[in-house]
Amino acid sequence: MSTLPSTNPYEDPESARLYDAENSGREDVEFYRRLARKLRGTAARGADAPFTVLDIGCGTGVLCVDLAADGHRVLGVDPAGAMLEIARTRPGGERVTWILGSADAAPEAEADLAVMTGHAAQQIVPADAWHALLASAHRALRPGGVLAFESRDPRRRPWEHWTPESTRGDFPHPDGGVFTSWVELLAVDESGADGVVETHRGITEREGSARRSAEETLIFRPLEVLRADLEAAGFAVEQVHGDWSGGPVTDATAELILLGRRA
Ligand SMILES: C[S@@+](CC[C@H](N)C(=O)[O-])C[C@H]1O[C@@H](n2cnc3c(N)ncnc32)[C@H](O)[C@@H]1O
């Protein structure tokens, strides 16, 4: 069995096909659906304007189609064509406007809510790219619109648990049978002022096929950095939650879920 060279997991069609199987049973989708329903009642938009949600880094579009089924106008943007192809062809995908690109490709001042889910915010590692993304999200929102996203809390040091043994799992393959996946930690850099930067390799294996591997680098920004970055981009941070039931951030919670309002 050969090992394929590293690929960007979101650009590779075969890896993109496995994404939903590896990411089922999520709690975040219901959190963001509830948030959209709640904001829809209070959004300051014209009487005829639909409540519009922009999903930045929408991936395979799981949340987008649910939001569209809830009656919102939904724009899903993602720079990875392989992920967007799965999103487009998902049942209900015809109700969503799909845009190949990032937040800067979204129309100006149309969104009432912009979201970044599946820890997509942690993939934008260089500080200038992160600040540019927040500026684009701000531009895409109507005045009074809300940006909501989550990032893993670095105080919990989750990368220390990302060993092959603790991450190994079997999942149904879209073509039948199962595939196995696991993660190998490659590097951790704790020297940066903006947060801990971690690189890991995700590996998938299926009987009779070549083993596939792809490297991914994530940044774990502390809450104070996320707050300051949002404020610098023109958002008022209105809520911070530590879990998907909307509880506060504590020493025991794993997520930093932030809601910032465009002034
Ligand atoms: C972990 S996936 C999350 C996908 C989806 N939001 C979810 O919750 O399942 C991260 C996604 O972010 C996208 N992404 C990476 N860099 C991005 C950027 N600069 N702007 C927008 N999306 C980006 C990737 O292509 C990928 O589809």
Helix count from the secondary structure assignment: 7
Q: Per the principal axes of the C-alpha atoms, what is the gross shape?
A: globular
Query: What's the β-strand tally?
Result: 11
Assign the CATH topology of the largest domain. Answer: Rossmann fold
Organism: Brachybacterium kimchii
Pfam families: Methyltransf_25 (PF13649)
GO molecular function: methyltransferase activity
Keywords: Methyltransferase, Transferase
Précis, in short:
With 263 residues, the chain is α/β, with parallel strands linked by helices. The chain contains seven helices and eleven strands.
Summarize the structure in words:
Keywords: Methyltransferase, Transferase. GO terms for molecular function: methyltransferase activity. This is Class I SAM-dependent methyltransferase. The strands form two sheets. The chain has a seven-stranded mixed sheet, with helices on both faces. Helices cover 26% and strands 32% of the residues. It has two domains: 13-154 and 221-262, Rossmann fold (3-Layer(aba) Sandwich), CATH 3.40.50.150; 155-219. Helix 1 crosses helix 4 (81-89) and helix 2 runs parallel beside helix 3 (62-69). It is of the alpha/beta class and 263 residues long. The radius of gyration is 18 Å and the shape is globular. The longest helix is centred in the middle third of the chain and has 14 residues, at 127-140. Mean pLDDT is 93; it is low at 1-7. The chain has seven helices and eleven strands. It binds S-adenosylmethionine.
